[in-house]
Amino acid sequence: MRQRIRQFIQAVFGRLNAEGHTFIRTYLSTPEQRLFYAMHEADQLHAFRVALTAKELYAKQSRDDSDEYILLIRCSLLHDIGRVKGDADIWGKVLAVLFYRFIPSLIPYFVRKKDTASVLGRIGRALHVHISHPYIGADKLRAIGAAHVAEIIQHHQKKAAPEDSLVLSLLKAADARN
Fold this sequence. Notes:
The chain is an all-alpha fold. The protein has a single domain (about 1-175), classed as Orthogonal Bundle (Hypothetical protein af1432), CATH 1.10.3210. It has ten helices and no strands. It has helices spanning about 1-15, 20-25, 30-35, 40-60, 65-80, 90-100, 105-110, 120-145, 145-155, 165-175. α4 (about 40-60) packs antiparallel against α5, α5 (about 65-80) packs across α9 and α5 (about 65-80) crosses α10.
């Protein structure tokens, strides 16, 4: 619960600083940056924090594979690009967490309404994005030729599994901490 409260406060008040923007330009191509900056500012900050945590976790692995490291950072920065600003911003995410915690049986009802302009449709859209953002983001990455990153991020919300690559397992761990 404390982590959720901390996430909420960061989402409301946190923004990327100049160092964060430089970090993003260092690791992401121009098309990837467009996808990154299409996210809500809170999601951008979250992704940046995930990347910094992933960087720390990778350093503890005592590995020396720069391609693997760069892939991990790119995946960390891009893992939530399926959440576009305006689709499911801060309150939509809060609502999704509450639904999953207290009334998960109602989620399918609201998701079926996601394409309507009503309040129920907005709730359904937020829940749909919460559920499907890994696949939405992966499709966007495939469209710009970043298939390898897409293959990893589409699995970032699934439970840890023995067959997970090092990059995917570190991404999941870093995301869980942030």
